[in-house]
UniProtKB/TrEMBL annotation:
InterPro entries on file: DUF4328
Keywords linked to the UniProt accession: Membrane, Transmembrane, Transmembrane helix
Membrane-spanning residues: 51-72, 99-120, 177-200, 221-238
Magnesium found in the keyword field: no
Species for this entry: Streptomyces doebereineriae
Any matching Pfam family: DUF4328
Protein's recorded name: DUF4328 domain-containing protein
Residues in DUF4328 domain copies: 88-239
């Protein structure tokens, strides 16, 4: 009979698995002669790269917060009548730093988005090996879920929850608190945060810029904590899959 796991190689005598599937191999390639549609591939390298980029995004947000505060301080002085060479130089510096922070945030966000989706695709494929029937959304939603209107509000979280449950090493799935924190912060940063950024873009006087900088600091603060929460999810889920793969496949009882 065929192996009940890979469905390609012959099962061992009086067993239900072939020799390759019965031997724990972690993230090794499929056994010679077998050609399953998917097999485990290590997410460790991608996970570390994603976490590093998210950490870089958090660092850029810290820089942006510093630029925001400088702009808040100098526009407050200008709005209060503080005019002079010193105030003008500080205003120019604040303007340059704010522009640099905005550009850096966009570039790092794009890099994070690309690497995060690649990592998510990898862990989703691994999760399909761990639990082929444990996913509510098709694999295409790993990418489409982020760009389809309305669906983007909850589909990515559903995809991550299914991967999390399939990758859990205990008798029951680990709790979803970390995922919920990350997803809540992400939604806040992408909805409320964007509204707050708009107020700064529309400000055209020192007083209005000064007033909008408080909102800018809130928006950048949301981005900061959302990036840190995302890094925590990436590292935790990567470690879960690594540990589960090293345990080896469970051997079904022969019938």
């Amino acid at each position: 009979m065929l192996c009940t796991r890979c469905l390609h190689a012959e099962a061992a005598p009086e067993g239900v698995l072939c020799a390759g599937c019965a031997t724990p191999t972690g993230f090794a390639a499929p056994p010679a002669g077998a050609a399953p549609k998917i097999w485990l591939r290590s997410p460790v390298g991608l996970g570390r790269a994603t976490a590093i980029l998210l950490g870089l995004a958090a660092a850029v947000d810290v820089f942006a917060l510093g630029a925001d505060y400088l702009m808040y301080d100098v526009t407050g002085d200008l709005a209060g009548g503080g005019i002079g060479a010193g105030a003008g130089d500080r205003a120019d510096l604040a303007d340059r730093l704010t522009a640099a922070a905005g550009s850096a945030q966009v570039l790092v966000m794009l890099a994070c988005a690309v690497v995060f989706v690649i990592w998510l695709w990898r862990v989703r494929r691994n999760a399909e090996v761990f639990a082929p029937d444990g996913h509510h959304k098709a694999r295409a939603w790993v990418i489409a879920g982020w760009v389809v209107p309305i669906a983007s509000l909850w589909y990515p979280r559903r995809v991550v929850v299914d991967i999390w449950d399939a990758s859990s090493t205990g008798d029951k799935p680990d709790g979803h608190a970390l995922i919920n924190i990350w997803w809540t912060l992400w939604l806040l940063s992408q909805t409320i945060g964007q509204v707050l950024y708009t107020a700064f873009d529309e400000a055209d006087t020192s007083q209005r810029i000064h007033d909008s900088m408080t909102q800018m600091m809130v928006a950048d603060g949301l981005d900061l904590v959302a990036a840190l929460a995302a890094a925590a999810v990436v590292l935790r889920l990567t470690r879960m899959q690594d540990e589960k793969a090293r345990q080896g496949p469970p051997v079904p009882v022969a019938v």
